[in-house]
Specification:
Elements (H helix, E strand, L loop, with lengths): L1 H12 L4 H17 L14 E2 L9 E5 L5 E3 L2 E3 L4 H11 L5 E5 L5 H14 L4 E3 L2 E2 L1
Parallel strand pairs: 1-7, 2-5, 5-6
Antiparallel strand pairs: 2-3, 3-4
Length: 133
């Protein structure tokens, strides 16, 4: 009879981890859902300086490097495919901003090409990233 009593006491002393695991999983889901992910264009650029600057969060980030190459979502994009790529990204997040991040040595024609493609798609929120001087 003492053997049965010891087994019952050991079972009663076991800690149930199920509620703790539930809380951990709920916290994990909460942090994943509320996290804001940093968008990177895929190439480093030296931004031009501006006297006025306004902070904006970008959902679509386009970079133009010093060789006038266009980079979107860490991929080099041909000039003819800019509109299609922007259209695909805009369909994923139609309420977001488009931020063009040109290098100091990038030509204004590339910036205009991207801005024109964005306007044709219907992206109204377009801005150019600069460094505040």
């Amino acid at each position: 009879m003492s053997r049965k009593k010891n087994t019952a006491e050991e079972e009663g002393q076991a800690i149930d981890l199920t509620p703790m695991l539930d809380v951990v999983f709920i916290m994990l889901i909460f942090f994943i859902v509320t996290a804001t992910f940093i968008k990177e264009p895929g190439v480093d650029v030296i931004k031009p300086e501006a006297t006025t600057a306004d902070l904006r969060a970008a959902s679509i980030l386009v970079a133009i490097n010093d060789n006038n190459e266009i980079w979107i979502a860490k991929e080099k994009v041909d000039d003819r495919l800019v509109k299609n790529t922007l259209e695909r990204l805009y369909a994923e997040n139609p309420k977001g901003w488009l931020v063009i991040q040109p290098d100091k040595k990038a030509s204004i024609e590339k910036v205009a090409l991207i801005a024109d493609a964005a306007r044709k798609i219907g992206i109204d929120k377009v801005s150019v990233a600069t460094e505040k001087s």
